[in-house]
Amino acid sequence: MVFDKFPELVEGIKGLSEETTTGVHRLHERENNGTLVMPAINVNDSVTKSKFDNKYGCRESCVDSIRRATDVMISGKVAVVAGYGDVGKGSAQSLQAAGARVIVTEIDPICALQAAMEGFEVKKMDDAVKEADIIVTATGNKDIIVGHHFEIMKDKAIVCNIGHFDNEIDVAWLNHNHGSTKVEIKPQVDQYTIYDKDIILLAEGRLVNLGCATGHPSFVMSNSFANQTLAQIELWLHSDNYENKVYTLPKHLDEK
Fold it and tell me: Are 138 and 113 in contact (CB under 8 A)?
């Protein structure tokens, strides 16, 4: 926002730090097209953030948020996790530990192989969604669950997102085509009727662990916020050492 709407403020800013996967992608886009006007430190890919906040945080909060929202018994259910990055890994472990049979969908062959080696079934979404009781998107991408997926889901399938924004699930399609059937069961829990089946959408497709619960435990978040603080101090004290590029948090600060 500062870059585009308030460029006159840029001169007084020594740099920025970014903590989310999607935010880092936007910074790399700006770096590549020449519109990044200050140094940026990528906190998201620091080990003490990505391997703790993303993985272990989601391992705690994924099932917690689904249970708070629905009171459903997860044991024995078929759960589909879309994406097997750090967030997907934590979410899959969370559901598996709760007794679900977990299916992973993943376009990256290395991550898909990791999922298989962890004992998860790996399928394409078009096949997996047909048998899913619970579907969790965790990709940071868009259009993971789209119109034709809703049409082939089981009755009472629960759909939620723990990745980023509300476009991993095509909520716009859902509201445009079946919005008249929408029933708010309780805040952040909506039911849509698609032909003769009911689909339950959590948190309007936004982050379920924030919409239906209280996010990650404070301890694991303290890792990420400490990294943000260290990145800000580094930029303040040593901004002359950095060009207008995206940098990973220095290893000595990550270990600190």
Answer: no
Model pLDDT, residue 50:
83
CATH H-level superfamily of 50-211: NAD(P)-binding Rossmann-like Domain (3.40.50.720)
Nearest to 31 by CA among 43, 39, 20: 39
The arithmetic mean of pLDDT across residues 219-232, rounded, is: 92
Residue 97 contacts residue 81 (beta carbons within 8 Å): no
Q: For 128-154, how does the pLDDT look when each residue is reduced to its tens digit (9 = 90+)?
A: 999 999 999 999 899 999 999 999 999
Q: b/e for 220-234, b at 16 or more Cβ within 10 A?
A: beebbeebbebbbeb
In whole angstroms, give the CA distance from residue 233 to residue 103.
42
Identity of residue 61: S
**HSE-CB for 86 with a 13 A CA cutoff:** 16
* Triad 217, 218, 223: Cα angle to 5°: 110
User: Strand order of the sheet with strand 189-194?
Assistant: 121-122, 101-105, 78-82, 134-137, 157-161, 197-202, 189-194, 183-186
In angstroms, the CA 27 to CA 79 distance is: 33
